[in-house]
Amino acid sequence: MNGKMLLALTAFSVLVLSSCVSKKVMKTEKVRYETLMGDYNQLQSQLKDCNDLAAENQRKRTGLEAELDNLKRENAFIKDNNNQALKQLENLSVISSSQAESIKKSLENIGNKDNYIMGLQAALNRKDSLNMALVMNLKGAIGNLDDKDINIKVDKGVVYIDISDKLLFRSGSYDINDRANEVLGKVATVLKNQPDIEFMVEGHTDNVAVKPGSALIDNWDLSVKRATAVVRVLQNKYGLNPTKMAAAGRSEYMPVADNSTADGRAANRRTRIVILPQLDQFFKLLEAK
User: Fold this and answer.
1) Which of 106, 130, 154 is the last residue of a domain?
2) pLDDT at residue 241, as a whole number
3) Are residues 71 and 173 in the same domain?
4) What angle do CA 249, 255, 258 make, to 5 degrees?
5) pLDDT at res. 286
6) Which has more pLDDT, 107 or 233?
7) What is the domain range of residue 66?
8) Residue 135 domain-assigned (yes or no)
9) Is 138 a domain residue?
10) CA-CA-CA-CA dihedral for 117, 119, 124, 129, to nearest 10
11) Domain total for the chain?
12) Looking at the whole model, is its pTM more than 0.85?
C-alpha cells in the first residue's frame, strides 16, 4: 500500500467517525431540547393559571373596594352633618346635655364603623393572599396531571379541589386504588403544611343506580363511603389532623355536567375537597362590634 492510498484511507475513516459522533450529539441535543420545551410549556401553563387567578381576585377586589369607598363617603357625610348640627345647636343654646351625649355617641359609633370596615378589608386582603398561595402550591405539587382528572379553582373566596373518581376508586366501588396514593399524597403534603386549614371531603356520583345485590344501598351510600375512604387515607396514611377534616356525601344531586352523556357522567363522578373558610375570624370581628 503506497503513501497516497494510506492517506486517503485515513481521511475517509476520520470523516466516517466524525459523521457518527455528530449524529449521536445531534440526537442527544434533540432529546434535551424536547425536554426543555416540555418544561417551558408546563411553566407557561402555570404562569397563565397564576395570571388568571390574579385577574379574578383583582376584579373581586375592585368591586369590594368600590363598596368600601361608598360606605366611607356615607360615613363622612353623616359625620359632617352631625358635626354641623351639633355646632348649630350649641350656638343656639337649645341642646340638652342628654341630647349632646347622644350625638357624641353617634359620632363615636361612626368612628367605630370606620375601624370595623378597615378590619374587614384587612381580613379580606389576607384571605385572598392565602387562597392564591394555597392554589399555586397545590398546582405546583400536583404537576402535570391531566386537568380533566383534577381541577383546582377558587369560587367566591372558597378553594375547591375536584378529583375524578377514576384516579381514586374502582368502578362502582369505594375501595381506594393504587393510583390514589399518588394524588392524595401530593394534596396531603400541601394541606399538612397549613395546619390551621379545615376542609371537607365530598363524594359525588352520577345518576346511574348501584347494581342490585351489591353491598351498597344507593348513590347516597356510595358517595358517603367514598368520602370517608378518602378521609381515612388522609388521616391514617398521611397523618392529617382528623379534627380539621369532615366527610360528606352529595350523591347525584350536585352534577357539574349532563348525566345523559358518558362524558357528563364521568365528570359527575368525582371527589371534591373543599377548603373551608375560617369564619371564626370574621365572627370575632362581629362580636367586637
Assistant:
1) 130
2) 94
3) no
4) 150
5) 47
6) 233
7) 1-130
8) no
9) no
10) 150
11) 2
12) no
b/e map of 262-279 (b: 16 or more CB within 10 Å)?
eeebbbbbbbbbbbeeee
Which of the pair, 65 or 176, is modelled with greater confidence? 176
CATH number, domain at 217?
Answer: 3.30.1330.60
User: In angstroms, rounded to a whole number, what is the distance separating the alpha carbons of residues 234 and 245?
Assistant: 9
Whose cell is 357624641? That residue is 104
Q: List all residues 6 or more positions away from 218 whose beta carbon is below 8 Å from its beta carbon.
A: 209, 210, 251
Residue 282 has pLDDT above 50, yes or no: no
127, with CB counted inside 10 A (0-12, 13-18, 19+), is middle
In terms of pLDDT, which residue wins out, 72 or 88? 72
Report d(CA 120, CA 285) in Å as an integer.
Answer: 8
Residue 35: inside a domain, yes or no? yes
Q: For 210-258, what is each residue's pLDDT tens digit?
A: 988 888 999 999 999 999 999 999 999 999 999 999 999 999 999 999 9
Strand, coil or helix: 117: helix
How far does CA 204 lie from the centroid of its chain?
19
Cα 272 to Cα 11, 160, 286: the distances in Å are: 69, 7, 30
Q: Which three cell numbers stand for residue 205?
A: 356520583
Does the pLDDT of residue 280 top 60, yes or no? no
Rg, the chain, Cα only: 32
Q: Where are the beta strands (DSSP E) in the chain?
A: 150-155, 158-164, 198-204, 245-251, 270-276
Identity of the residue numbered 77 = F
